[in-house]
Design goal:
The structure holds two protein chains of two kinds. Chain A is mostly helical. Helix content of chain A is 71%, strand content 0%. In chain A, helix 1 crosses helix 7 and helix 6 packs antiparallel against helix 7. In chain B, 34% of the residues are buried. Classes of the chains: A mainly alpha, B mainly alpha. Chain B: It comes from Mionectes macconnelli.
């Protein structure tokens, strides 16, 4: 799925946001909760106001997991195995095919906001494919 | 009928007011063809679509992108009657063009990303929210007359 060129582009983009990871995570989630209110149903126990510590903390977790995936592009299934179990059996978030599209869309918007023109069509394509691959791995254990 | 708050209307029109329809339209369509290459199936007579560079530089892609986004402007001008505005176009996309409506959703999401890259921080979460709603409503209206 991901070509060598795609992998390079994903790694490059990730390098550009390293150092801002917490912001990227928080902003992605904030946008997701704003644009797709149905995603809030998974966080009834959170304070979801923008700037909330819980949103920041969770955003940081999400980006850390994605960073791990970026470091293991050749081996995502194994690298994300624990997370796959967690999402399938504990969290039971609506299968990643659906909800990750919403998360992926918001992550891409955040990257586009920060990178402007540098978020080229090729980079956009690579990140889109990467997020699809992550979603597929997370969905592996669902049924 | 879709309900738009005053704030949503304001966010939509203030962004639209700053959009270069030709540039953004060309970019959105090019990205659709690059990020989701299967969409090229609808444009077999567009000439060279063999690489991202070819697609971005393709004059037919640019022209058609402009056409598509210009039509989008009709939705912005007629927020209270998007269904009616796209009635004929919906029939066209079904009966003549045979486009799977899923593609409208893909293009809508890409348009949002293009706007984000152009407007940066000014494309706030509230802006994105209003625009995701708008592209969703447009996609729905375009699919409405399918049979």
């Amino acid at each position: 799925m991901l070509t060598a060129e795609d992998k390079k582009l994903v790694q490059q983009v990730w390098e550009k946001v390293s150092g801002h990871q917490e912001d990227v995570g928080a902003e992605t989630l904030t946008r997701m909760f704003a644009a797709y209110p149905q995603t809030k149903t998974y966080f009834p126990h959170f304070d979801l106001n923008p700037g909330s510590d819980q949103v920041r903390g969770h955003g940081k977790k999400v980006v850390a997991a994605l960073t791990n995936a970026v470091k293991n592009l050749d081996n995502m299934s194994q690298a994300l195995s624990e997370l796959s179990n967690l999402h399938a059996y504990n969290l039971r978030v609506d299968p990643p095919g659906f909800s990750s599209q919403l998360l992926a869309q918001c992550l891409q918007v955040v990257l586009a906001v920060h990178l402007g023109k540098d978020y080229t069509p090729e980079t956009h394509s690579a990140v889109d494919k990467f997020m699809s691959a992550v979603a597929a791995v997370l969905a592996e254990k669902y049924r | 009928m879709v309900h738009w708050s005053a704030e949503e209307k304001q966010l939509i029109s203030s962004v639209w007011g700053k959009v270069n329809v030709e540039e953004c339209g060309a970019e959105a369509l090019a990205r659709l063809l690059i990020v989701y290459p299967w969409t090229q199936r609808f444009f077999s007579n567009f000439g060279n679509l063999s690489s991202p560079t070819a697609i971005v530089g393709n004059p037919k892609v640019r022209a058609h992108g402009k056409k598509v986004l210009t039509s989008f402007g009709e939705a912005v001008k007629n927020l209270d009657n998007i269904k009616g505005t796209y009635s004929k176009l919906s029939e066209l996309h079904c009966e003549k063009l045979h486009v799977d409506p899923e593609n409208f959703r893909l293009l809508g999401d890409i348009l949002v990303i293009v706007l984000a890259s152009h407007f940066g921080r000014d494309f706030t979460p509230a802006c994105q929210c209003a625009w995701q709603k708008l592209v969703g409503v447009v996609a729905h209206a375009l699919a409405r007359r399918y049979h």
